[in-house]
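During the reporting period the student researcher (J.K.) took over the structure-prediction task from the postdoctoral fellow and processed the backlog of single-chain submissions. One of the processed entries is reproduced below for the supervisory committee.
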Amino acid sequence: GHLVESGGGLVQPGGSLTLSCVASGFSFNTSTMNWYRQAPGKERESVAQITPRGGETAYADSVEGRFTISRDNAKNTVFLHMSSLKPEDTAVYYCRTNRLFEYDYWGQGTQVTVSA
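J.K. obtained the following structure tokens:
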């Protein structure tokens, strides 16, 4: 399996950014998809999750109400729309999917920097 993130960059506080993750090599439309992030000097943390058909989503408390995860199964792509960005959202953002005892795929990450 292969995951490729894109869409990161530099954005001012209060701004918005949408990340994309294109998947290949596994059954995307039967897989729960996740976004994680890792800030400098901190552990990697889960940010958002979406079930295979998009019917259920979950968010970290720190991003609830500001971030939205979505997916397009026809394009094997999962998105993370981020709004009202704060400097503490600065991190490398990763796409991940895993199935217990079967596979655990991570993307290479995309840098998001929130700064004036």
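The committee noted the following: The chain has a mean pLDDT of 97.
J.K. will present the remaining backlog at the next meeting.
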